[in-house]
């Protein structure tokens, strides 16, 4: 993670984080309705590993049966998710009779049929991996990660994510990292960075203790540009050498790139009407020429975190659930970053308590 969470301007919840592990089936989660903000999980893959439990998922005799078990589990996770919650899961493909089956997209299609929105398909590019014996095809070096949401009204912090894992601009849907060296003895562990990315992107750092609604980051535009882009640097120089004011920059941002402009609204509460905004934008364009458009990408900064309710009841950290939590990577990372976490698995990890204590100490 390139940035510590403190630098993301996170609010400090009134209550501290908690964690709980349950020996339970992923299709029957022992949690109340509306208590989870994000599910992050790595389900068993189709016909890959026999975990030795009668109730296990993954050993079904057809892909369709496997996919329908996962979709049934997702319906159960929807019950425990708050309305702004979502699911991020990774899923690998497999070969059957020498042909790729297309498991990830069969799952995505079934989820869509079940009412989920498939908001992203992220390509997880793995640096390195196990050698494969096949001599007439390339080794598999990627997996799909899907972001499923029950509606379009889900919690999402693109600003925080982009600052932690990019240079502030939307970093795109390709994630490139290998496995962590210390896998805690588990055969299919999650890399910690994968979990950090999911939490930063879609788990609210604070929610209302009464109604569970998240605090949302409010942004304001600055007049600062990205100095690493040569055009932006030149645009700043032109602006600083001119008589243009911050009002001109705000007018550019209101009017937008095209001459038709987006300046349909009164600019910024200063009482200026659209004609005045357009006039300022035109003046700026005259001076800046082609560099004008650079200011429509000016950086934003956090103005604060706003509650979405009137409860005034205090806040607690957002909660992540991993229903197939294995060695507990999601719970470890959540604890280290100050989120609450819940995990279920048919097979409780031996060193679970120890690893959580270590993660809490490292926080
Ligand atoms: C791919 S592993 C998860 C690895 C985990 N992400 C980690 O970091 O260690 C899948 C896990 O699902 C569990 N599992 C299989 N069927 C299950 C079911 N029906 N309910 C709950 N857990 C199940 C297995 O015991 C295994 O630990």
Order of helices and strands: EEHEEEHEEHEHEEHHHEEEHEH
Uncertain segments: 259-271
List the strand order in the largest sheet: 1-14-13-2-3-7-6-8
Bound small-molecule species: S-adenosylmethionine
How would you classify the quaternary structure? single chain
Which class best fits the helix and strand makeup? Answer: alpha/beta
Number of domains: 2
CATH architecture type of the largest domain: 3-Layer(aba) Sandwich
Number of strands: 14
Radius of gyration: 24 Å
Tell me roughly what share of residues is in helical segments: 25-40%
Distance between the amino and carboxyl termini: 14 Å
The profile of the biggest β sheet is: 8 strands, mixed
Strand content: 15-25%
* CATH-defined superfamily of the largest domain: Vaccinia Virus protein VP39
CATH topology descriptor of the largest domain: Rossmann fold
- How many individual helices? 9
Question: How would you sum up this structure, described in words?
Answer:
The protein is of the alpha/beta class. It folds into two domains: 5-214 and 310-362, Rossmann fold (3-Layer(aba) Sandwich); 223-298. The protein is built from nine helices and 14 strands. It has helices spanning 63-80, 103-113, 158-165, 192-202, 230-241, 246-255, 274-288, 329-337, 352-362; strands at 19-23, 36-41, 81-91, 95-96, 99-100, 117-125, 142-149, 174-176, 207-208, 216-221, 300-306, 315-316, 319-322, 340-345. It has an eight-stranded mixed β-sheet with strand order 1-14-13-2-3-7-6-8. Strand 4 (95-96) and strand 5 (99-100) form a beta hairpin. The radius of gyration is 24 Å and the shape is globular. The two termini are 14 Å apart. S-adenosylmethionine (SAM) is lined by residues 25-26, 42, 44, 51, 55-57, 186, 188-190, 324, 326-327, 329, 344-347. Belongs to the N(4)/N(6)-methyltransferase family. N(4) subfamily. Its EC number is 2.1.1.113. Residues 36-205 form the DNA methylase N-4/N-6 domain. It comes from Natronomonas aquatica.
């Amino acid at each position: 993670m390139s940035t510590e969470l403190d630098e993301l301007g996170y609010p400090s919840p009134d209550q501290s984080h908690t964690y709980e592990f349950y020996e339970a089936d992923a299709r029957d989660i022992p949690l109340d309705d509306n208590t989870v903000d994000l599910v992050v999980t790595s389900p068993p893959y189709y016909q890959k590993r026999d975990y030795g439990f009668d109730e296990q998922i993954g050993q079904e005799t057809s892909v369709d049966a496997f996919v329908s078990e996962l979709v049934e589990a997702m319906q159960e996770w929807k019950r425990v998710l708050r309305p702004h919650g979502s699911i991020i899961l990774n899923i690998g493909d497999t070969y059957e009779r020498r042909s790729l089956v297309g498991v990830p997209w069969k799952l995505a299609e079934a989820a869509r049929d079940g009412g989920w929105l498939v908001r992203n398909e992220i390509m997880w590019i793995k640096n390195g991996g196990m050698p494969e014996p096949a001599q007439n095809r390339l080794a598999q070096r990627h997996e799909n990660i899907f972001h499923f949401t029950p509606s379009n009204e889900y919690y999402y912090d693109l600003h925080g994510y982009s600052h932690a894992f990019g240079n502030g601009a939307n970093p795109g849907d390709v994630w490139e990292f290998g496995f962590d060296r210390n896998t805690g003895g588990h055969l299919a562990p999650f890399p910690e960075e994968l979990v950090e990315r999911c939490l930063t992107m879609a788990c609210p750092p604070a929610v209302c203790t009464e109604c569970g609604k998240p605090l949302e980051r409010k942004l304001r535009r600055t007049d600062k540009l990205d100095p690493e882009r040569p055009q932006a640097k030149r645009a700043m120089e032109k602006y600083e050498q001119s008589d243009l004011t911050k009002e001109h920059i705000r007018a550019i941002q209101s009017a937008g790139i095209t001459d038709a402009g987006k300046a349909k609204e009164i600019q910024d509460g200063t009482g200026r009407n659209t004609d005045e905004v357009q006039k300022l934008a035109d003046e700026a364009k005259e001076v800046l020429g082609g560099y004008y458009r650079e200011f429509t990408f000016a950086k934003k900064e956090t103005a604060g975190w706003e509650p979405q309710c009137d409860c005034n009841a205090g806040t607690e950290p957002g909660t992540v659930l991993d229903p197939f939590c294995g060695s507990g990577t999601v719970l470890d990372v959540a604890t280290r970053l100050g989120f609450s976490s819940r995990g279920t698995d048919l097979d409780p990890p031996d060193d679970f308590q120890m690893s959580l204590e270590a993660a809490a100490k490292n926080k």
